[in-house]
Design goal:
InterPro entries: Cyt_P450, Cyt_P450_B, Cyt_P450_CS, Cyt_P450_sf. By secondary structure, the protein is α+β, with helices and mostly antiparallel strands. The chain contains 14 helices and twelve strands. The protein has a five-stranded mixed sheet with strand order 1-2-8-5-3. The protein is globular, with a radius of gyration of 22 Å.
C-alpha cells in the first residue's frame, strides 16, 4: 500500500459557493469588437498599465459628463492626486486607531441582537455593519432618519431591464419605470443621507472623505456621485464577502476551528484565500488608449488603440499557472509565487487597486471572529443570485440560528 508523499490540505472544498454555470479557462480572445482577458498575467498587466490603458466606463449623459468623474473613474495625474489625498483615510494605522473600537462596538451590538432574537438574516447584519463602517469613513453620519443600509440596498439591488427589451413597447415602458424608481431612490438617499452630511461638514469639517471633497471644491451632485461610488465599491462588496466567507466557515468545521484559533495574520490569510476563490467584483472594463501587446500560450495578441477590454477577475484568480493545482478549491495554505498576493486580483491592482482593501478585511475579520464564536447553524440554503448592474454575486436569505 502506497501513500501520497504530498499531504492534501485538509480544508480543500470541491467548488466555489458562487459558481454560475461552467468556469472559463484562462486565456485571451476577441469576441465581436471586445477583448476578453482571463489569464492572471494578462489581467494584471492591463491593470498596471496606466500609460496605455484607461477606465472602460463611458456615458452619453450630458449632465453626468459635465461632472468631475468619481475617483475610481479618473486616470492619469488627476487620479494620482486624488488617490494620494484620500489614502490617509484607509491606512492600517488609521483603521486601527480611529475605527477599530467603533467596529468592535458595532459588532457586539449586532451579536447581542442576534443572540436575543435567536436567529437573523446574516445578509442584513453584514449590510448594516459594512454601511455603518464605510459611512463613518466617508462622512455619512448625519442622516435625517435611520435605515441608510436599507436605502442603499434598494438603490443598488439587482434587477432591471435587459438591453434587448428596448425594442418593444412593453420593454420601453418597463425601462422607463425602472429609471423613475431609480431616480426616486437616489433622490431619497441624497435628501436623507448625503445633503445633511454636506451641510454639517460645511459648518464644521471633519477628517473624512466628504470634508476633503468640499475642500477640493466639489459640488453637491459630485459628492453624491462619490458617495454612490463608495456605497458600491465599499459597502456592498464587503457585505457580500462577509456572507460568503461565513458560508464557507460555517459549513467547514475544521476550517472554522483553525480560523478561531489563529492570530490576526492567520485569520486574514484564510479570508484572503476565500476572497481569491470568491471575488465579489467579477468583471472590470478597460479601454486601450494606445496599442497594447499581450502574450499568452506562446501567442502574441495586439489590442489596438480604442478597443474595449473585459477583465475576468474570477478566472484570472483561478489561473493554475499562478495559483497552482486545484485552483477552484479553498486552500489557505496554498503556496504562491513571489509577487502574487493571497487574494490574487480581488482588490484589483496598479493605480486603481481598492484603497479600502485593508479596512474591508479588518472589519470582516472582527465581525466574523465574533460571529463564529457563537454556536450557530445555517437554516436552509442561502439564496445566490447575480447582480448584472454591479457584476457581482449577491447572497440573500442567509438565516443563521443560535443553538441552545
Amino acid at each position: 500500500m502506497t501513500t501520497d508523499p504530498t499531504p492534501r490540505c485538509p480544508f480543500h472544498e470541491p467548488e466555489r459557493k458562487t459558481a454560475f454555470g461552467a468556469e472559463h479557462d484562462p486565456g485571451i480572445d476577441l469576441q465581436g469588437d471586445v477583448w476578453h482577458l482571463r489569464s492572471y498575467a494578462a489581467v494584471k498587466a492591463v491593470l498596471r498599465d496606466s500609460e496605455r490603458v484607461r477606465q472602460g466606463a463611458t456615458t452619453d449623459n450630458v449632465l453626468v459628463t459635465r461632472l468631475r468623474p468619481a475617483v475610481i473613474f479618473q486616470d492619469g495625474a488627476e487620479h494620482r492626486e486624488q488617490r494620494t489625498a484620500i489614502a490617509r483615510f484607509f491606512t492600517p494605522k488609521t483603521v486601527q486607531d480611529k475605527h477599530h473600537a467603533f467596529i468592535d462596538h458595532l459588532t457586539e451590538r449586532l451579536m447581542v441582537r442576534l443572540t436575543r432574537a435567536g436567529r437573523a438574516d446574516l445578509s442584513d447584519l453584514s449590510m448594516e455593519l459594512s454601511v455603518e463602517v464605510a459611512a463613518r469613513v466617508v462622512g455619512l453620519t448625519d442622516s435625517l432618519q435611520p435605515g441608510m443600509d436599507r436605502r442603499i440596498d434598494e438603490l443598488l439591488s439587482g434587477g432591471g431591464v435587459n438591453a434587448e427589451d428596448d425594442g418593444d413597447l412593453a420593454g420601453r415602458i418597463r425601462r422607463a419605470l425602472e429609471q423613475s424608481r431609480g431616480l426616486w431612490k437616489m433622490s431619497s438617499f441624497y435628501r436623507v443621507d448625503v445633503r445633511p452630511a454636506i451641510r454639517a461638514r460645511r459648518q464644521k469639517p471633519q477628517e473624512d472623505v466628504i470634508s476633503h471633497l468640499l475642500g477640493q471644491g466639489y459640488n453637491d451632485l459630485e459628492i453624491l456621485v462619490e458617495c454612490l461610488t463608495y456605497a458600491t465599491a465599499g459597502m456592498v462588496t464587503t457585505r457580500e464577502f462577509i456572507s460568503v466567507a461565513a458560508w464557507h466557515l460555517l459549513e467547514n468545521e475544521e476550517l472554522r476551528r483553525e480560523y478561531l484559533a489563529g492570530d490576526r495574520t492567520e485569520r486574514h490569510r484564510i479570508l484572503h484565500e476565500i476572497l481569491r476563490l470568491e471575488p465579489v467584483a467579477s468583471t472590470l472594463w478597460r479601454r486601450a488608449e494606445q496599442d497594447v501587446t499581450l502574450e499568452h500560450g506562446g501567442v502574441t495578441h495586439r489590442i489596438p488603440a480604442g478597443a474595449r477590454m473585459i477583465l475576468d477577475i474570477r478566472t484570472a484568480n483561478a489561473d493554475p499557472a499562478v495559483v497552482g493545482e486545484e485552483p477552484l478549491t479553498l486552500c489557505p495554505h496554498r503556496p504562491l509565487p513571489g509577487g502574487v498576493q493571497a487574494q490574487a486580483l480581488s482588490f484589483g491592482d496598479g493605480a486603481h487597486r481598492c484603497p479600502g482593501a485593508f479596512l474591508a478585511i479588518h472589519e470582516s475579520d472582527v465581525f466574523l471572529h465574533r460571529l463564529l464564536s457563537l454556536p450557530l447553524r445555517i437554516v436552509g440554503t442561502p439564496e445566490l443570485t447575480f447582480n448584472e448592474m454591479l457584476m457581482s454575486y449577491e447572497v440573500r436569505d442567509f438565516t443563521v440560528e443560535v443553538q441552545s
